Amino acid sequence: MNPMLQYVETGSAVILRVSPELIICRYKPGAKVDRASAQGNLQARMSLPGGVPHAVVTIFPEGSEFGTSLLDMNHYEPCEVAERTRLVAFVAEDPAMDAMIKLYFAHHPTNVAKRVFASEAEAMDWVQGELKCC
């Protein structure tokens, strides 16, 4: 077993550290993506050991529900989150979630590098390329 492999499960997602530089946050099918779930998942991610700034792949499966309370807060504003987040790839399997992610960042700009993808494979390719180059 890989000693770096660590995970936390919340009511809405499984957060898995696969290496010092990469964490995957996989929302559960039918999960509501709102202020409470996003905060809980960020806190769970921050609870994983390791201080190295890491990439995050956040996966929203088909059928995830976007709650407008997510827009109430900038989840990347706290210093700890910004300092430990190198880049974020979002996987939006549903086009509506893609639009909601873009709406969120229009309301809450951040300096954290980010992109939205339709598939996990595309997101992982981008993340791996970014981790190698920079």
Describe the protein's architecture and organization.
The protein is α/β, with parallel strands linked by helices and 134 residues long. It is 34% helix and 31% strand. The chain is built from four helices and eight strands, in the order ββββαββαβαβα. It is globular and about 35 Å long. The mean pLDDT is 88.
Q: What is the element layout, followed by pairings?
A:
Blueprint: E1 6-9, E2 13-19, E3 22-27, E4 32-33, H1 35-47, E5 54-60, E6 65-66, H2 79-84, E7 85-92, H3 95-107, E8 113-117, H4 120-133
Parallel strand pairs: 3-5, 4-6, 5-7, 7-8
Antiparallel strand pairs: 1-2, 2-3
- Percent strand: 25-35%
**Spatial arrangement of strands, main beta sheet:** 1-2-3-5-7-8
Radius of gyration, CA atoms, in whole angstroms? 14 Å
Roughly what is the average pLDDT, rounded to an integer?
A: 88
Low-confidence stretches: none
Q: Please bin the fraction of helical residues.
A: 25-40%
Tally of DSSP helical segments: 4
Structural class: alpha/beta
- N to C succession of SSEs: EEEEHEEHEHEH
The overall strand count is 8
Main sheet specs: 6 strands, mixed
**What is the rounded distance between the termini?**
28 Å
- Bulk shape: globular
Structure, briefly:
This protein is of the alpha/beta class. The protein has helices at residues 35-47, 79-84, 95-107, 120-133; strands at residues 6-9, 13-19, 22-27, 32-33, 54-60, 65-66, 85-92, 113-117. Helix 3 (95-107) links the parallel strand 7 (85-92) and strand 8 (113-117).
Question: What key phrases describe this protein's structure?
Answer:
single chain; 134 residues; alpha/beta; six-stranded mixed β-sheet; 34% helix
